Structures are given as C-alpha cells and as structure tokens.
Amino acid sequence: MSRLRILLDNGHGKDTPGKCSLRWADGSQLFEYEFNRDIVRRIADKLAAKGITFDIITPELTDIPLHQRANRVNHICNVNGVRNCLLISVHSNASLNHNATGWEVWTTPGKTLSDSYAELFFKRAQAAFPNWKMRSDTTDGDHDKEARFAILRKSLCPAILTENFFMDYEKDCRFIMSEEGRSQIAQMHFEAILDCIDFYEQL
Ligand SMILES: [Zn+2]
User: Ion ligand 1 — residues with CB under 5 Å?
Assistant: First the structure.
C-alpha cells in the first residue's frame, strides 16, 4: 500500500518585499521567510524521527516563483500519485490595519479532499491554542477559509495553507518569535499530519 507523502512548502524568500512584521519598540522584527522555514524545519525533523516520507519544496532562502514551486510539487505528485501526496504551505499572516489576531487554514473553493485534511489541522490548532482566536468560515460546513491561492490552485495533490498568527500584531508576533510559540506550532502541525496519515489510510 502507498504511504502518504508530506510536501512541505515554506512560503516566500529572504528577498520577498513586504513579508515582515513591524519593527517593535525593542528593535525586534520578524521576517516571514525565516519563520516559515524554521517551522518547516522543525516539522521535518519530527517527520524524519517518525520515518515519515517528506519533501521540502523550497529549501532555498530566496523566493522561488510560485509556478516553479507548483512544478516541483506536481513532479512529486506525478511520480507518487496525486492522492498519495499532501502539500502543506506554512505562513504567517498580516492584515490591512495591523489589528487582526489568530490562526487559520486555507484551501481552494469547493469540496475536495483538501477540506478533510484542513479540518484535521483546524481541530489540532484549536486544541493546541485554546486561548487564541480560531478564525474560520463555517458557511460551507467546515472550518477552513477558501481562496484561489496560486500554490493551492496549481498543486495537483490535496493542498492546504496554514496562516500561523499575525506577524503584524504585536501579541501574535511575540508568540511566533518565541521558542515556546514555534515549538507549539511545529508540534501542532506534526500531530495534524499524523491525523492526516490515519485519515488517508482509511480512504
Ligand atoms: Zn505568507
């Protein structure tokens, strides 16, 4: 039987304009490319320790164009089978007025396998972050938010995108700059991936 292969995408590069927090009063600042890569690396370490097969789609520090990232994903999908892969793109959020807080997961519009995987992520996040706002859209019967993000739309396999708190809101940003925050976020993703593997094996 095939096993579920986990494709980890860390969005953005060192050179992507605008993908950073404000500079806080103590001079600290978060750069999204660094956060995304650190979380992906932590998840990858946990998967490796469990013997779970994974690929890091964007190991480079620079910004890899979306079509190229999608090509990498789809190459792996074509080799391993579309249904045997799950893409997880890790991000941190920002809002227009720098006043939003919380955690959310995204899929493309419509009901696909991605929604089932996203729901497992949402449940794990809800359990991991009981004191934080869970941002969801339940109008279609599940908790994920839906948009035609390029990496989700262009990927052949089920694909989800996690927005791990708001880097432009100080409370959130302090949390995701902290060791505690990062270790909780990575652990939550790891546990959700184990749930996704269980789910996939029942399909
Ligand atoms: Zn992002």
Answer: 11, 91
Tokens of 125: 């996040």
Residue 32 belongs to what H/E stretch? Answer: helix 32-50
3-state helix, strand, coil in the chain (%, to 5): 45, 20, 40
Domains: count for the chain: 1
Between the CA of 101 and the centroid of ligand 1 the distance, in Å, is 15
Instruction: For residue 141, give the CATH number of its domain.
Output: 3.40.630.40
Cα of 2 to ligand 1 centre, how many Å? 31
Q: What is the mean pLDDT of each run of 10 residues along the chain (203 residues)?
A: 91 92 96 98 98 97 96 98 98 96 97 97 98 94 93 97 98 98 98 98 95
Residue 89 C-alpha to ligand 1 middle, in angstroms? Answer: 9
Alpha helices for 57-134 (secondary structure H)? 66-80, 113-128
Amino acid found at 74: N
Range of the domain at 26: 5-202
| Residue 131, CA distances (Å) to 124, 127, 185 in order | 13, 9, 14
pTM across the whole model: 0.97
